[in-house]
Amino acid sequence: MEILKTQNVSKVYDGKVAHKALEDIDLVIEEGEFVGIMGPSGSGKSTLLNMVATIDQPTSGSILISGKNPLEMKHNEMAEFRRRELGFVFQDFNLLSTLTVEENIVLPLTLEGTKVKEMEKRVAAVAEKLGILEILKNRTYEISGGQAQRTAIARAIIHQPKMVLADEPTGNLDSKASRTVMEMLEQINRDDRTTMMMVTHDPIAASHTQRVVFIKDGKLYNEIQRGDNRQAF
Ligand code: ADP
Ligand code: ADP
Protein backbone atom coordinates (compact mmCIF):
# COMPACT_ATOMS: atom_id res chain seq x y z
CA MET A 1 0.00 0.00 0.00
CA GLU A 2 1.30 3.43 -0.95
CA ILE A 3 1.58 5.78 1.99
CA LEU A 4 2.92 8.64 -0.12
CA LYS A 5 2.38 9.44 -3.76
CA THR A 6 3.44 12.76 -5.25
CA GLN A 7 2.28 13.44 -8.81
CA ASN A 8 3.99 16.06 -10.95
CA VAL A 9 4.71 18.20 -7.93
CA SER A 10 6.26 21.56 -8.73
CA LYS A 11 6.92 24.50 -6.44
CA VAL A 12 7.69 28.01 -7.56
CA TYR A 13 8.73 30.61 -5.00
CA ASP A 14 7.72 34.08 -6.09
CA GLY A 15 10.26 36.82 -5.60
CA LYS A 16 12.01 39.41 -7.69
CA VAL A 17 12.91 36.45 -9.87
CA ALA A 18 10.55 33.48 -9.61
CA HIS A 19 12.46 30.42 -8.47
CA LYS A 20 11.46 26.87 -9.33
CA ALA A 21 12.41 24.94 -6.20
CA LEU A 22 10.79 21.66 -7.32
CA GLU A 23 9.99 20.39 -10.80
CA ASP A 24 7.69 17.48 -11.64
CA ILE A 25 8.47 15.36 -8.63
CA ASP A 26 6.95 11.87 -8.84
CA LEU A 27 7.77 9.94 -5.72
CA VAL A 28 6.06 6.89 -4.27
CA ILE A 29 6.81 5.57 -0.80
CA GLU A 30 5.31 2.23 0.24
CA GLU A 31 4.08 1.61 3.75
CA GLY A 32 6.92 0.34 5.95
CA GLU A 33 9.76 1.74 3.82
CA PHE A 34 12.72 3.73 5.18
CA VAL A 35 13.60 6.28 2.49
CA GLY A 36 16.41 8.81 2.54
CA ILE A 37 16.34 11.99 0.45
CA MET A 38 19.82 13.30 -0.38
CA GLY A 39 21.03 16.21 -2.43
CA PRO A 40 23.18 19.33 -2.27
CA SER A 41 22.20 22.37 -0.27
CA GLY A 42 19.41 24.30 -2.04
CA SER A 43 18.30 21.29 -4.12
CA GLY A 44 14.74 21.33 -2.72
CA LYS A 45 14.87 18.69 0.02
CA SER A 46 13.24 20.79 2.74
CA THR A 47 10.69 22.16 0.29
CA LEU A 48 9.64 18.61 -0.59
CA LEU A 49 9.46 17.54 3.06
CA ASN A 50 7.42 20.63 3.97
CA MET A 51 4.87 19.81 1.27
CA VAL A 52 4.50 16.24 2.46
CA ALA A 53 4.09 17.67 5.97
CA THR A 54 1.33 19.93 4.56
CA ILE A 55 3.18 22.93 6.01
CA ASP A 56 3.40 24.30 2.47
CA GLN A 57 1.45 23.69 -0.77
CA PRO A 58 2.70 22.75 -4.22
CA THR A 59 2.24 25.30 -7.03
CA SER A 60 1.01 22.43 -9.20
CA GLY A 61 0.62 18.67 -8.88
CA SER A 62 -0.81 16.68 -6.00
CA ILE A 63 0.36 14.88 -2.90
CA LEU A 64 -1.57 11.89 -1.58
CA ILE A 65 -0.98 10.50 1.90
CA SER A 66 -2.61 7.08 2.43
CA GLY A 67 -4.54 7.80 -0.77
CA LYS A 68 -5.99 11.09 0.49
CA ASN A 69 -5.21 14.68 -0.36
CA PRO A 70 -5.05 16.66 2.91
CA LEU A 71 -5.44 19.93 1.01
CA GLU A 72 -8.97 18.88 0.05
CA MET A 73 -9.98 18.47 3.70
CA LYS A 74 -11.61 20.96 6.03
CA HIS A 75 -9.20 22.63 8.44
CA ASN A 76 -10.09 20.50 11.51
CA GLU A 77 -10.18 17.30 9.54
CA MET A 78 -6.74 18.07 8.08
CA ALA A 79 -5.24 18.75 11.51
CA GLU A 80 -6.66 15.45 12.76
CA PHE A 81 -5.44 13.57 9.68
CA ARG A 82 -1.97 15.07 9.99
CA ARG A 83 -1.77 14.06 13.63
CA ARG A 84 -2.90 10.52 12.92
CA GLU A 85 -0.66 9.95 9.92
CA LEU A 86 2.53 11.91 10.64
CA GLY A 87 5.25 12.42 13.24
CA PHE A 88 8.03 15.00 12.91
CA VAL A 89 11.71 14.97 13.85
CA PHE A 90 13.88 18.06 13.32
CA GLN A 91 17.59 18.84 13.19
CA ASP A 92 17.43 21.12 16.24
CA PHE A 93 15.10 18.81 18.26
CA ASN A 94 12.36 21.47 18.82
CA LEU A 95 11.85 20.52 22.47
CA LEU A 96 10.18 22.93 24.90
CA SER A 97 12.88 23.91 27.38
CA THR A 98 10.49 24.84 30.19
CA LEU A 99 9.13 21.28 30.26
CA THR A 100 10.66 17.99 31.38
CA VAL A 101 11.54 15.21 28.98
CA GLU A 102 8.37 13.37 29.95
CA GLU A 103 6.17 16.45 29.50
CA ASN A 104 7.63 16.98 26.02
CA ILE A 105 6.97 13.36 25.05
CA VAL A 106 3.29 13.38 26.10
CA LEU A 107 2.43 16.62 24.28
CA PRO A 108 0.84 14.88 21.25
CA LEU A 109 -1.31 12.74 23.56
CA THR A 110 -2.41 15.76 25.59
CA LEU A 111 -3.69 17.22 22.32
CA GLU A 112 -5.66 14.03 21.67
CA GLY A 113 -7.14 14.00 25.19
CA THR A 114 -5.70 10.57 26.07
CA LYS A 115 -6.44 9.22 29.59
CA VAL A 116 -3.66 9.56 32.20
CA LYS A 117 -3.25 5.78 32.73
CA GLU A 118 -2.89 5.21 28.98
CA MET A 119 -0.40 8.09 28.73
CA GLU A 120 1.77 6.60 31.48
CA LYS A 121 1.78 3.24 29.75
CA ARG A 122 2.75 4.74 26.40
CA VAL A 123 5.47 6.98 27.87
CA ALA A 124 7.05 4.01 29.64
CA ALA A 125 7.00 1.99 26.41
CA VAL A 126 8.55 4.65 24.14
CA ALA A 127 11.04 5.77 26.80
CA GLU A 128 12.23 2.21 27.20
CA LYS A 129 12.50 1.75 23.44
CA LEU A 130 14.61 4.92 23.16
CA GLY A 131 16.73 4.33 26.27
CA ILE A 132 15.63 7.48 28.08
CA LEU A 133 13.75 6.08 31.10
CA GLU A 134 16.31 7.50 33.54
CA ILE A 135 16.02 11.08 32.25
CA LEU A 136 12.22 11.41 32.10
CA LYS A 137 12.14 13.89 35.02
CA ASN A 138 15.03 16.01 33.71
CA ARG A 139 14.60 19.38 32.04
CA THR A 140 15.71 19.40 28.42
CA TYR A 141 18.68 21.73 29.09
CA GLU A 142 20.15 19.08 31.39
CA ILE A 143 20.43 16.36 28.73
CA SER A 144 22.87 15.67 25.88
CA GLY A 145 22.15 16.24 22.18
CA GLY A 146 21.72 12.53 21.57
CA GLN A 147 19.29 12.27 24.47
CA ALA A 148 17.43 15.33 23.19
CA GLN A 149 16.97 13.76 19.76
CA ARG A 150 15.85 10.47 21.31
CA THR A 151 13.31 12.48 23.34
CA ALA A 152 12.12 14.17 20.14
CA ILE A 153 11.75 10.77 18.45
CA ALA A 154 9.74 9.48 21.43
CA ARG A 155 7.45 12.50 21.05
CA ALA A 156 7.18 11.87 17.31
CA ILE A 157 6.05 8.25 17.70
CA ILE A 158 4.02 8.22 20.93
CA HIS A 159 0.74 8.72 19.06
CA GLN A 160 1.75 5.89 16.70
CA PRO A 161 1.74 7.77 13.39
CA LYS A 162 2.00 5.84 10.13
CA MET A 163 4.95 7.88 8.84
CA VAL A 164 7.76 9.87 10.47
CA LEU A 165 9.23 12.81 8.55
CA ALA A 166 12.76 13.59 9.67
CA ASP A 167 14.76 16.65 8.54
CA GLU A 168 18.51 16.14 9.09
CA PRO A 169 17.95 14.23 12.36
CA THR A 170 21.71 13.78 12.91
CA GLY A 171 22.68 17.30 11.78
CA ASN A 172 23.54 18.49 15.28
CA LEU A 173 24.98 15.24 16.63
CA ASP A 174 28.45 13.72 16.80
CA SER A 175 29.09 10.37 15.10
CA LYS A 176 28.41 8.25 18.16
CA ALA A 177 25.11 9.93 18.96
CA SER A 178 24.20 9.83 15.26
CA ARG A 179 24.68 6.07 15.15
CA THR A 180 22.57 5.54 18.26
CA VAL A 181 19.76 7.75 16.98
CA MET A 182 19.78 6.06 13.57
CA GLU A 183 19.80 2.57 15.10
CA MET A 184 16.70 3.55 17.03
CA LEU A 185 14.92 4.94 13.98
CA GLU A 186 15.80 1.75 12.12
CA GLN A 187 14.47 -0.38 14.96
CA ILE A 188 11.19 1.58 15.05
CA ASN A 189 10.91 1.12 11.30
CA ARG A 190 11.52 -2.63 11.54
CA ASP A 191 9.51 -3.44 14.68
CA ASP A 192 6.54 -1.08 14.35
CA ARG A 193 6.55 -0.88 10.53
CA THR A 194 6.52 2.91 10.85
CA THR A 195 7.38 4.43 7.47
CA MET A 196 10.37 6.79 7.56
CA MET A 197 11.08 9.64 5.15
CA MET A 198 14.34 11.34 6.06
CA VAL A 199 16.22 14.24 4.49
CA THR A 200 19.94 13.99 5.18
CA HIS A 201 23.47 14.97 4.18
CA ASP A 202 24.94 12.45 6.54
CA PRO A 203 26.33 9.15 5.17
CA ILE A 204 25.89 7.54 8.60
CA ALA A 205 22.20 8.41 8.54
CA ALA A 206 21.81 7.30 4.91
CA SER A 207 23.39 3.94 5.70
CA HIS A 208 20.34 3.06 7.82
CA THR A 209 17.81 3.57 5.03
CA GLN A 210 16.51 0.97 2.56
CA ARG A 211 16.37 3.35 -0.38
CA VAL A 212 18.03 6.66 -1.16
CA VAL A 213 16.47 9.11 -3.60
CA PHE A 214 18.74 11.85 -4.94
CA ILE A 215 17.47 15.32 -5.76
CA LYS A 216 19.28 18.11 -7.56
CA ASP A 217 18.05 21.49 -8.82
CA GLY A 218 14.52 20.49 -7.78
CA LYS A 219 14.50 17.24 -9.77
CA LEU A 220 14.81 13.60 -8.80
CA TYR A 221 17.67 12.15 -10.77
CA ASN A 222 18.78 8.90 -9.23
CA GLU A 223 17.81 6.28 -6.74
CA ILE A 224 19.63 3.51 -4.91
CA GLN A 225 17.57 0.58 -3.69
CA ARG A 226 19.35 -1.30 -0.95
CA GLY A 227 16.61 -3.44 0.51
CA ASP A 228 17.44 -4.76 3.93
CA ASN A 229 21.17 -5.04 3.32
CA ARG A 230 21.49 -1.71 5.08
CA GLN A 231 25.12 -1.91 6.18
CA ALA A 232 26.47 -2.09 2.63
CA PHE A 233 26.02 1.57 1.75
P1 ADP B 1 27.47 15.86 1.18
O1 ADP B 1 27.48 15.70 2.65
O2 ADP B 1 28.55 16.76 0.67
O3 ADP B 1 26.11 16.20 0.63
P2 ADP B 1 26.96 13.24 0.13
O4 ADP B 1 27.62 11.96 0.44
O5 ADP B 1 25.61 13.43 0.67
O6 ADP B 1 27.91 14.42 0.59
O7 ADP B 1 26.93 13.37 -1.44
C1 ADP B 1 26.90 14.61 -2.11
C2 ADP B 1 25.86 14.60 -3.19
O8 ADP B 1 26.29 13.86 -4.30
C3 ADP B 1 24.62 13.89 -2.74
O9 ADP B 1 23.80 14.68 -1.93
C4 ADP B 1 24.03 13.56 -4.06
O10 ADP B 1 23.40 14.69 -4.59
C5 ADP B 1 25.21 13.18 -4.88
N1 ADP B 1 25.46 11.73 -4.89
C6 ADP B 1 26.20 11.02 -4.02
N2 ADP B 1 26.22 9.72 -4.34
C7 ADP B 1 25.47 9.59 -5.45
C8 ADP B 1 25.09 8.49 -6.29
N3 ADP B 1 25.50 7.24 -6.04
N4 ADP B 1 24.33 8.72 -7.34
C9 ADP B 1 23.91 9.95 -7.60
N5 ADP B 1 24.22 11.02 -6.85
C10 ADP B 1 24.99 10.86 -5.80
P1 ADP C 1 17.49 22.11 0.60
O1 ADP C 1 16.60 21.68 1.71
O2 ADP C 1 17.82 20.99 -0.35
O3 ADP C 1 18.72 22.81 1.07
P2 ADP C 1 15.39 24.04 0.03
O4 ADP C 1 14.18 23.21 -0.21
O5 ADP C 1 15.53 24.67 1.35
O6 ADP C 1 16.69 23.15 -0.31
O7 ADP C 1 15.47 25.18 -1.06
C1 ADP C 1 15.32 24.93 -2.45
C2 ADP C 1 15.42 26.25 -3.20
O8 ADP C 1 14.29 27.07 -2.93
C3 ADP C 1 16.64 27.07 -2.81
O9 ADP C 1 17.13 27.70 -3.97
C4 ADP C 1 16.09 28.07 -1.81
O10 ADP C 1 16.85 29.26 -1.84
C5 ADP C 1 14.68 28.29 -2.35
N1 ADP C 1 13.73 28.61 -1.27
C6 ADP C 1 13.43 27.83 -0.20
N2 ADP C 1 12.49 28.39 0.57
C7 ADP C 1 12.17 29.56 -0.02
C8 ADP C 1 11.24 30.62 0.27
N3 ADP C 1 10.45 30.57 1.33
N4 ADP C 1 11.20 31.68 -0.57
C9 ADP C 1 11.98 31.73 -1.66
N5 ADP C 1 12.85 30.78 -2.00
C10 ADP C 1 12.96 29.70 -1.21
TrEMBL record:
Entry-linked SMART domains: AAA
Keyword Hydrolase appears in the UniProt entry: no
Keywords: ATP-binding, Nucleotide-binding, Transport
KW ATP-binding (keyword) present: yes
Domain ABC transporter as annotated: residue spans: 4-233
GO MF annotations in UniProt: ATP binding; ATP hydrolysis activity; transmembrane transporter activity
PROSITE patterns, A to Z: ABC_TRANSPORTER_2
Gene Ontology CC terms, in alphabetical order: membrane protein complex
Domain of life: Bacteria
PANTHER family the UniProt entry points to: ALPHA-D-RIBOSE 1-METHYLPHOSPHONATE 5-TRIPHOSPHATE SYNTHASE SUBUNIT PHNL, LIPOPROTEIN-RELEASING SYSTEM ATP-BINDING PROTEIN LOLD
Similarity annotation: Belongs to the ABC transporter superfamily.
Protein's recorded name: ABC transporter ATP-binding protein
